[in-house]
Amino acid sequence: MSINIGDFKIDKKSPTFIIAELSANHGHDINVAKDTIKAAKEAGADAIKLQTYTADTITIDCNNDYFKIKSGTIWDGRTLHDLYKEAYTPWEWHGELMEYAEELDIICFSSPFDNSAVDLLESLEVPAYKIASFEITDIPLIEYVASKKKPIIISTGIATLSEIDDAVTACRKVGNDQIILLKCTSAYPAKIEDANLRTMQNLKETFNVEVGLSDHTLGVTVPIVSVALGAKVIEKHFILDKSIGGPDASFSLDKEEFKQLVDSVRDAEKALGCVDYKLTDKKIKSRQFSRSLFVVKDIKEGEIFTKENVRSIRPGNGLSPKYIKDILGKKANEDYKRGTPVSFKMFK
Known about the structure:
The protein is α/β, with parallel strands linked by helices.
């Protein structure tokens, strides 16, 4: 089964769908957001992804300990409301940003964080939805998103296997099997040794879905390895210029870094290729450097082929070395000079 997001078809043979995550990397300046979308397109991204929430739709303005961040993150000491007030993308921008993305021919969609966000995105006719890691346990939200019958990409960062199963079941319950699960390490930034990319393969086998990676590590190593393990989607935070600052700047890639990611992924795809044992013209030419059987000492007519006068050497113009036992002990049917490739016509 293939999954279509806009005009991008995701299936076994398709290239990796590479998403640039805008997130909070706009500094509350719509022109910066637009320039970021343009830069993502120029860097080779297939899609730009927004996040659709406000501080008040995702949490409440409360200063007690429950709402203070203290989990060893780069945001420790702040309240949730304060963080999301800085990070959110104004809802009135969404239509304009999506129109701009369409002009640039880059797919634009979003992560909704409550039903009202879904309603906004539906009014804008988004081609797909993304469920963020921390929303994977919100089954009513997932059911509502899935009910729109559009592709649904789900990050699994904080979920147990049982919770992932609940999310997949919620989608299928409403008749939506256009599911892509992303392996995600919900640390900001994440350590390479915590990537555990083999989990991605297990997700594919367990749930019979396409899989990919939502990556928060620094650099491009983890995304490249994920492609070799079957990732069909890669999501990475993207920033126009790290000097903009903001909550996500430290683990986002700039244009040059993101282009390196895209180029490396595309090279990895070329290297993976397909199962192919055909002998191309280049391979055939290269076979001259393979080993074969040659006369290495002058042989007179009637003389016996022995290990002393026939050997497996380069180049590859003679018989395959596997025939050496069939030749040893046979009589030469004429004289043969040293350096003559061995053939079956040389003996009776």
